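TA notes. Do not distribute before section.
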Amino acid sequence: MSQQGHSDDDSTNSTAKSHNTAGAVFRHSDFSKGLAMKTTTRNILIALILLAVVAICASGFLPAQHIEINGEEFDGLAGVGLAFAGIGIALLAGVFALICTGFILASVSALLLLVVFAVICGVVFAALPFALPFLILAGIVLLLQRRKSSTGTNV
């Protein structure tokens, strides 16, 4: 063990490895391959670039956007940007509304399951007096079987 807290193999092969402050060991060959971007990150980055290109094209090819906020007019790229910001806020509000609707539907379905369970329990308790003779007969049969098995074990 060397003074740095690494094994001798790590310290002798210092040209092939580099250490970060957290103590994790990265090989130089790991960085030579390049950092691979995850698929989700790549897709989000592509979508943002396409959105920026569409916004720039929309500002050039569409008629001038005139957005008024508190009497102040926004034209050109600022108007298009604010229009896209409004669309983004509307999409977020729609997603939030869908999430809230899902929670409401889930809670209503859970309540309906409780109501169905209560109705089934009510039907069972209502039919219990009709089943009483069968339950008494089953109790007598079980009691007689228990007495037979207890006398058989004493032999």
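Switch to the second chain here.
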Amino acid sequence: MRKFRFTMESALRLREHQEHQALEQLAGAIGDHAAAQQRLEDTVKQVADTIVRTGHDVHQKVALTAFLCRMDEISLQQQFELAQAQDAVAAATDQARHAQAARKGIEKVKERQLERWQIEASREEDRVLNEAALTRKGTQR
């Protein structure tokens, strides 16, 4: 009996590879998002700590004002980076879903081909057994 051979095996491997790459990109995007979020949280903590440490001296308050203005700029930039990271995660998630759907589609085709092959192989086996039985029966007479 011949062996099952899936005609689209190379396409399936390609889809699996594309899905793997999409998942790696998603993992990277999630990591970038977490890092951006952590930087923003660190900035907020730094501002809060500085405000708590600032005394009542006029020079310290002037320095605090300058510091807060600079931290506001940094915070806005980090919020923008965080939004970009969220967009990247969403895009990578979409790409991973599409890659998974493409792979599953080809796997479904493979399953159907395997089922047809199994039915055909079973029929072929039955035909060979029937021939052998008829040949044996014919030689016994």
